[in-house]
Write a structure and sequence with these properties.
The chain has 390 residues and is mainly alpha-helical. 53% of the residues lie in helices and 9% in strands. The strands form 3 sheets. It has a 3-stranded antiparallel beta sheet. The chain has a 3-stranded mixed beta sheet with strand order 7-6-8. The mean pLDDT is 93.
Length: 390
């Protein structure tokens, strides 16, 4: 993977310098690999060119260096994209750190002391079948190289040692088969995986444009990045759309729909409800009607079915937030906000909020509208989606 990327960049680099190369079938394709190769030429010129750096079965040092160069560039892009997406990581963890601190050897030693490790065919195995897995897993290959599973075991044990009482892993749907072996690590080391380990599986996202699939092919290196989606539809729509589905449900993300300023666009529909109420409050002030306090308003005047439905929906907001937090399902908040906006818009279209000839009713309805505004603003804030007032 990392070596394959290094080789792929290296070959494109040689090609840019005028050398004739043949790209292996397993090489990484895509314009981003070529971009990294161009950066390599720009920074190092012909440093890695020539016959002295031929590709061979044993990874040559230049390929390792180029792989690290490529990894650094891609990681910087990822950091910037996540920053613009408003996702913050308190700690970035490198697999290399596990080896530098000898944590992989330590977790294997701990498992060996527990009597759940055995040697076979020159390799070191973990008896994962003793803890619910369908077969035993290799921790160290016959040649001495540690497996990714060994690194994962060390990583999870390190998090436990650092004092975390619950570990949440977010994995792609194609990693279901990996769950049993990770849970086996917890059980073998004497930890309750049911209490300490939460695994959330997420489905892939299908990108559409006006209902038609956007063609992508991993083999050809054709894919759409988060950066491209952000640049096209904006952060608000991007975040809201990704949060509209349960993690294990398939999401169809229509790029054109996400850009529309129309009721069928969910994020626009919710934001428009907020903006409408801001306009109502402004209109009220122009008529010398301020938002009343709960002591200065007669809420019994809010007796229409629509008004009572809005009130009941507002009252459920704290429960929705608690449910989202406990179940780790933020999509329930996007559902709630869409429901609230869906109740408010018809009410607004049917009823006049500010009536100078009926100040008590105007104040009651203004109080209600302001409550809706507050809840929408708080809900969007939790989702890190803006609440524009126009």
């Amino acid at each position: 993977q990392i070596e394959t990327m290094g080789r792929s960049v290296y070959l494109h680099y040689k090609e840019l310098l005028g050398e004739k190369v043949e790209m292996p079938e397993d090489s990484y394709k895509g314009e981003y690999i070529k971009d990294i190769a161009r950066d390599l030429v720009s920074k190092y010129g012909s440093k890695y060119s020539g016959d002295r750096f031929k590709i061979c079965p044993q990874t040559p040092e230049p390929v390792k260096e180029i792989a690290e160069f490529a990894k650094s560039i891609l990681l910087n892009h990822i950091r910037k994209d996540l920053e613009d997406f408003d996702v913050t990581f308190n700690n970035w963890f490198s697999e290399n750190g596990l080896y530098e601190k000898h944590l992989v050897d330590k977790v294997i030693d701990e498992l060996r002391k527990k009597g759940v490790v055995f040697e076979q065919d020159g390799a070191t195995w973990f008896k994962t079948t003793d803890f619910g897995d369908d077969k035993d897993r290799v921790l160290e290959k016959a040649g001495g190289d540690k497996t990714y599973f060994a690194s994962d075991a060390a990583y999870h044990l390190d998090k436990i040692k650092r004092g975390f009482d619950i570990i949440i892993n977010i994995w792609g749907a194609d990693h279901h088969g990996y769950e049993a072996r990770i849970r086996a690590i917890f059980r073998a080391l004497g930890y309750d995986d049911k209490k300490m380990l939460e695994i959330i599986f997420i489905q892939l996202v299908s990108l559409l444009r006006n209902g038609v699939n956007v063609p992508m092919g991993k083999r050809e290196g054709e894919f759409v990045t988060l950066r491209q989606v952000l640049d096209e539809v904006g952060r608000d729509a991007c975040r809201f759309f990704f949060l509209m589905r349960k993690s294990d449900a398939h999401l169809e993300f229509d790029l054109e729909l996400a850009k529309k300023q129309a009721p069928e666009n969910p994020v626009f529909y919710v934001q428009y409800a907020y903006a409408r109420i801001c306009s109502i409050i402004k209109h009220a002030k122009e008529n010398n009607i301020e938002i009343p306090s709960s002591k200065d308003v007669d809420l019994s005047l809010l007796n229409q079915d629509e008004e009572l439905t809005i009130i009941k929906t507002l009252v459920s907001f704290p429960d929705v937030i608690e449910t989202c937090a406990v179940s780790l399902e933020p999509h329930k908040l996007t559902f709630y906000l869409q429901e609230l906006a869906g109740i408010f818009h018809p009410y607004y279209n049917k009823n006049r909020v500010i009536s100078p000839d009926n100040i008590p009713l105007s104040k009651a309805r203004l109080f209600l509208c302001n409550a809706v505004k507050t809840v929408i603003q708080n809900g969007l804030s939790i989702l890190k989606v803006s609440a524009p007032d126009v």
